[in-house]
């Protein structure tokens, strides 16, 4: 009996410790709490990543595997031909360099888009170098390195597949123009006092709320009378005027960010003889790097995925990846190789092929996200993205 | 086995080092090239030529023509203006792209849309002809044709059903991300991935071919069916069918809530826990009031996002009507007008419902 009592007493003494470990007290969270947190996080993460995983697995299956009810996740053999055909369907099999050669040597071979569109694209791509050297010269002293890095980027672009370059051109230039103009407008609204400011902010919110289908009919009429339709200017002009995709969102982010900038810095720079433009470029912009990172990343993704407006305004003169993905099923007959000996069943268009195309279309975004995600997440920590 | 792994790891490292070396050499080479004297001379020469062709004539024109006429007036006014006026003018200049855009790309097209919606527009050989029909287009859309009304009903139902779920889920996920757990960066990376890759075509592919719904095992469903009535189970399963879609819409709201949560002062939590509050009451009394202002912002964002999303059938319908022979631009613009005004009504209603009222009452 004595030993039993002692045992009971020991257990009773330990209960508070166990309780503390399991549930936790004011200072530290217990094991149960942590288990719950990890369980929830992992579950949500799984649900988030599930479609991509599913898509990837299906895209590796042959059509016979798809019909086989015993195969759910892991294909019996990896059927990579899906990707080969999808590469054909999305016009990824042709390097951009070939087009560049065609521009100079064989004009008549450029059929997919008007000659001037291609020439303008090449000029924009090459002018990356002087723009980086001159613009970056404000912030970095080593111009040689800027030159080297930008020319490397241009060389990489020349080697990339043509439809990736087209998409990159559309999304990249439109994003740059949008972010630049949003920064300027946000700075103007945040740092200066003028009468119509409140009205402009209210109108801005109203414009943000309007759906993009409201104005596209008369805007496309306007662009065709101005001769902008079918060229990139139909996307650049509204982006510069703060009417691009999600532009108001970016303007509000910049507005919030520049508002936090202390007034003394600006005043002291002003007293030292700096004018407004140099204050903006030399002081305000370097302080708002997180906002730029967020706007550039999100803007690039949004513009890369934009389909409705590019379809209408570009008239098919430039074919971006989402457009090609939309027409993948229609283009399948010419993309797939039906001459493979008697293996027609596996060549026909199915979800495996659609998913292979989808994987290829999101791949550049995923790679970009992999590179910038650290800065992106850091920037979210640093910035208060909460427009009132 | 271990040896193999070590060899592989070393091999990868060597390859990586090699690539880095090659890249560094290339960069260094171009770097040196850029600083060569010959190169600098060439650059100067080019700049000289450019300045002769473009800059000098422009400068001459500016100095002799513009500066003496308009420039003089502007300079006089500028020099006489007060500091506040100067600031205001600079402000207007900074915002001028937006003002121009608003006038030219919003107000003017809006007027045209209103005009077109009252007309029957037909396009013949690049020429538009307008035929005044009054409110006939609106009548047709609302009372005769069924497709638009149906889609709008679907859209409204979707907004009303999705928005609360999205808000609740994004608050939960933002709270999770705000915890101090291992692999925080990894989880954040996954939760923000949909912001980047979400597009209409992808979502359509997935809803056509599966992948958007998580398959529950039939055995599990049968077991649950024996315990709970079938209707409730079906609701539950229905949620699972759209859970991925809903979660993928959560990206930016999570971001907004997370930014809000990180602004909350940590000492508030400590003070509350010393006073004897548990996590539950801390959530309701401190966290929720702190992030509440973000709710209405997120709601606006979500509704705008859902409305502008490429997968939204209304957008497609308007586009199709524009090209439809019996409808054309006038009908489509009337549709767009109804849709736009409806969206303003929905958003302002939701905003007024969820607005933070604590400021107006005044905290006594």
* CATH homologous superfamily (4th level) name of the largest domain in chain A: MetI-like
Kindly name the structural category of chain B: mainly alpha
CATH class of the largest domain in chain A: Mainly Alpha
What's the shape of chain B?
A: extended
Main sheet specs of chain B:
2 strands, antiparallel
Uncertain residue ranges of chain B: none
Care to count the β-strands of chain B?
Answer: 2
Mean pLDDT of chain B: 82
Domain count of chain B: 3
CATH architecture tag of the largest domain in chain B: Orthogonal Bundle
Q: Give the proportion of residues in helices of chain B.
A: over 70%
Average pLDDT metric of chain A: 84
What is the name of the CATH topology of the largest domain in chain B? MetI-like fold
Layout of strands and helices, then pairs:
The complex is a heterodimer of chains A (388) and B (364).
Chain A: H1 2-22, H2 31-59, H3 63-67, H4 81-89, H5 96-104, H6 115-126, H7 128-136, H8 143-159, H9 162-191, H10 197-209, H11 216-226, H12 233-240, H13 247-259, H14 263-271, H15 276-287, H16 289-305, H17 308-313, H18 321-326, H19 332-335, H20 344-347, H21 351-382
Helix pairs in contact in A: 2-21, 4-21, 7-8, 9-12, 9-13, 9-16, 13-16, 16-21
Chain B: H1 2-35, H2 37-66, H3 70-80, H4 83-117, E1 119-124, E2 127-132, H5 136-144, H6 147-178, H7 184-197, H8 200-209, H9 218-227, H10 230-249, H11 251-263, H12 266-274, H13 279-291, H14 293-308, H15 313-323, H16 328-354, H17 358-361
Antiparallel strand pairs in B: 1-2
